[in-house]
Amino acid sequence: MLRSILSDDLPRSRWLALALLAILVGLAVAPFLFPGAKSLNVAAKICVFIVLAASFDLLLGYTGIVSFAHTMFFGIGAYGVAISLTRMGAGWDAVAVGTVAGLVVAIVLATVIGLFSLRVRTIFFAMITLAVASAFAILASQLSDLTGGEDGLNYRLPAVLRSSFSFGDTWFGVRLNGRLLDYYLVYGASLVLILILLRIVNSPFGSVLMAIRENPFRAEAIGYRTVVYRTIASCIAAATAALAGALLALWSSQTNPDTTLSFDIMVDILLMVVIGGMGTMYGAVIGAVLLVFAQNYLQDLLAIANKALVGVPLLANLFHPDRWLLWLGVAFILCVYFFPTGIVGRLRQKR
Amino acid sequence: MKRDWLPLLLIPALMIGALPLIGSPASWVTLTVAGLAMGLMIFIMASGLTLTFGLMDVLNFGHGAFIAVGAFVAASVMLALAPWMTADSIWLNLAAIGPAVLAAMVVSGVLGLAFERVIVRPVYGQHLKQILVTTGGLIVAEQLLKVIWGPDQITLSRPTALRGAFLFGDVAIEKYRVLAVAVGLVVFAALALTLNRTRIGLLIRAGVENGEMVEALGYRIRRLFVGVFVVGSALAGLGGAMWGLYQETVTAAIGAQVAVLVFIVIIIGGLGSVGGCFVGALLVGLTANYIGFLAPKVALGSNILLMALVLLWRPQGLYPVAKR
Amino acid sequence: MAEPLLSLRGVQTHIGRYHILHGVEFDVAEGGLTMLLGRNGAGKTTTLRTIMGMWRAAAGEIRFDGRDITHLPTPDIARLGIAYVPESMAIFADLTVQENLVLAARSGPPDQKRLDWIFARFEALKRFWTLPAGLLSGGQKQMLAVARAIVEPRRLLLIDEPTKGLAPAIIANMIDAFRELKDGESTLLVVEQNFAFARQLGDSVAVMDDGRVAHQGGMAAFAADSALQQHLLGLGMGEHQ
Fold first, then answer.
1. Domain carrying residue B214
2. Which residues of C touch B217 (CB under 8 A)?
């Protein structure tokens, strides 16, 4: 049963299994364990980023291509829902239209970019996606009539997802309102998407992707059209990222370039997948949790170090709370050199 | 390749084509000079990147770090020499800019040497890791810039002699842009001479085509590569310093921002080709300025459009480098 | 007996996951021309590339002039006086004929007398001196590739299929050139499919089969033994004659 849900891709490490179980259960009971709007927000963000990072792992880890346009698809999904909720009013029809529109745009764009540049080489694809994504981010902030420009869009969610909607009194001290429903919508959808991704990478299609990653010429010689497979993988990744974006838009009732399209988020996703472990899917889960935690709590740790070092000019800056990315960046480089399979790979070795 | 003039003709064609659309010849001249200045600054930053790719199949996604470092170092030196910058003498102004630019080039060059050793060397021949590690290098470098220079942007004003514009009737040409064009042309000429008239240049051109055969002839291509990497980094520093003065502000994000333009330029030009990089840079600079005037909203998207058009015409860029 | 100029002992080479050379052993004596023969895929090109250090030997030893060169980097191997003409010719297409030769002359501008000697055999190189090498015909590129290897004196020349696709007149010139070189300053190791050419020029022969040297000896004896030729080179070779 468990085997078939996980598509036969078991954690293969006791510690990894424990960690995954802790994340699964922790996120499921988060509203009750850590009540309060802020921690619920962190939990929802973790769910969304797990999906986003996992879909990126499909590209980076399984297909062996680097795309810098993954946030673009994330943004397309988010803006799809945000724009339709803004224009059509706060109904489920708007959510459906927005989600589908976002999916279609993401898939079309991914196909075009893929056919344009995937036949050449990894580096070319990385450069093209970087250029396209940065142009798209600028375009989104320029077309302010549609996207609200730099400020983004603020909109109302469907009534059942608002905090004013109530479906009971309290349960274990937690108010049973629309936000709680919204959280479980995000949680459930993320869980389903992750399981689908697991299924994809463990399918024959996933094996072909890995064969192409290992030796594209050989795969081509055996008769697999590598461009087609890579483009399909990049479409699936784009579609999943768009769905993650739609979930974010449905959660946060505001969508702006900083939270969906910026290069900073692209960097976050890269860090999540590489530190967690490329080509493992579970690595994305671990990495996403770790990074969101680091963003929220590494800062506190650094603040302590920073206080201790006040007066030492450069060193204090090195441990400034805002420099958490510096340390994760160093960890990232070390991971690529020494632990290409990241945390998950290490855990599996120890077994 | 030497006899392929078609891409070169694109530049005058673009200029002439833009004239009727813009209408006023005065604006056209101003925009053209602005476009050339922008293009040449990008060329300075991009030339080293395209050569290192051609030579060793290494694409440094952290190239932007050298651009940013150059901008910051130059800004620091110029701020330290503020009295000379604001003096009403072109010589004192230049006495401030000269050391600033030199310092920018030296620091970026040294950084390039370290970057090559620590970040690039361990991942030769592994494209995926190369992209990841050099991107990681950019992340770390950007954070270190914030550690050293603080997180806020630095405002920088141009020296007295380079403010304002030359006026010819109703044509206004910003002085700084003239300087940028001049420096850009000097760098291009120096590169072209080195590549075509010296033994090192011969080695670089041969190495871009077939590094393995250059080694079989008895030359150590690794050393050549390190040299080109360092010079390319120093040039990125020079370009960064110039770009900082052009924008009159310097932020840690400047590297990543300009690097996108640099990437577009070397894709358009053909990875590995300095001549293509030159043509590509001018096309990008001119297009950005013309479109910025004609339809400001889509100005930045225009580069992508240009890139798509070029790739539809020549999928490997304007001057594809013959490989092996 | 004097130590051979070049000797390979138990050389094994892998390319990616493919094991190509399974312990190649042979000697090349100083002076003269050794032909390296064998069927397609026998490992001849891989052997030359392994000597140059362009593929790395996973096991075994390669000695040149009494020195172990197995683990030297390619440029250092070249600097010992070994020149290599690959099958693909690998001329620099963007460089002119002149620039190709200038680059190949490591110790300074090419010697004019030597250039004249080269021009006398490969006249086209003089005619197209300032033309980009990419515009040369296939045969002219082959001349340039050989010229690049001999523009300065080298002790050992490794040449991979010099006659491939050449017109008979040019082959005759090539034979002249190689003969003069082997009688003078250089030792040659030539991979060849054209047995007629090989027989005319070779002093000794090493025949490869399936990643090993299956036969080594004098060319005269090998040329006389048609059963051995049949066995090692197959029927295809007979048609070349």
1. 6-313
2. 78, 83, 103-104, 106, 148
